[in-house]
TrEMBL record:
E.C. number: 1.8.4.11
InterPro entries listed in its UniProt record: Met_Sox_Rdtase_MsrA_dom, Met_Sox_Rdtase_MsrA_sf
An MF annotation (GO) of this entry: peptide-methionine (S)-S-oxide reductase activity
UniProt domain Peptide methionine sulphoxide reductase MsrA: residue ranges: 2-43
Keywords of the record: Oxidoreductase
Organism: Vreelandella aquamarina
Catalysed transformations (reactions): [thioredoxin]-disulfide + L-methionine + H2O = L-methionine (S)-S-oxide + [thioredoxin]-dithiol; L-methionyl-[protein] + [thioredoxin]-disulfide + H2O = L-methionyl-(S)-S-oxide-[protein] + [thioredoxin]-dithiol
Protein name per its UniProtKB record: peptide-methionine (S)-S-oxide reductase
Length: 62
């Protein structure tokens, strides 16, 4: 689908520099996020299809 890079991380929350373990246990207020970079010249489908796929992935706990 033209994905050229991904970067995982977290955002929000109460702690300035939490560890992954702290976030995984919960209670920090952070959520895990992913940045997806893509090359639109390599996308076969309509770009809106790609966007829909990338934003529907959510935590089952939300």
């Amino acid at each position: 689908m033209g994905v050229s890079a991904t970067i995982s991380g977290y955002m929000g929350g109460e702690l300035e520099n939490p560890t992954y373990e702290q976030i995984s246990r919960g209670g920090t207020g952070h959520i895990e996020v992913v940045q997806i970079e893509y090359d639109d010249s390599r996308i076969i489908a309509d770009g809106s299809d790609f966007f829909r796929v990338s934003v529907v992935i959510r935590s089952p706990l939300d």
